[in-house]
Amino acid sequence: MRESDAWRTIARFARAHDVRGVLVAFALIAVCDAIFGSTVLQLPYTGGEAGVPFRRELPLAFASVAAASLSSPMRRFEETAAAAFRAAQHAWLGGVVTSAAVVLTVEELIISPPATAVILLRALLVWTGIALLSGRVFGWRLSFILPMASVFPLTYWQYDGQGRNRWWDWTHQPPMSLGCWAIAGAALAAGSLAVAVTPWRAARGRAHLAAALGRTRTVSPR
């Protein structure tokens, strides 16, 4: 495919996926961060209540919008589309996630310490992977379900017996926490796999597996 054709395919994909709506949503989340980001939310945990700054949860909103942007009126066609259209989907998703990361990071570098910007960027990557997995399971418009469900362990079990944040709490562990970066990598890998394994590809894989098993059963031992 020529480069001009590829760009036209990406442009058509963007129009079908409401690029303006995505940009407006990102802008609204950024405004909420600037105005309400320092508001402390009192959330329950095993020892009582914990105060969590509102901005710690905002990467979840960015990630959910990014994953939900894969929804469109042409969803069924896109699930079985040719390689060129799938490439446009991947380019679109990469662009949306990168845009969310840039908006979040730049804003946090302006209004928060650099360490907080890195922590929230890591949280965005984790929640993006979880949101993509949620979108594949429940539908892209419901990409927020699993990210929202992850808030419960992050708040209710965030402290260990000594009152320290647990190693897997990616919203509070320091920027250089290897465990949390491993979670981010695993979440993105799972999310990427969820996007790649379309229902059509899954059905084809099951058919190939069934055929292989059938051939194995018909071969009699010598």
From TrEMBL:
Membrane-traversing stretches: 21-41, 91-111, 117-135, 179-200
The entry's keywords: Membrane, Transmembrane, Transmembrane helix
Protein name (Swiss-Prot/TrEMBL): Uncharacterized protein
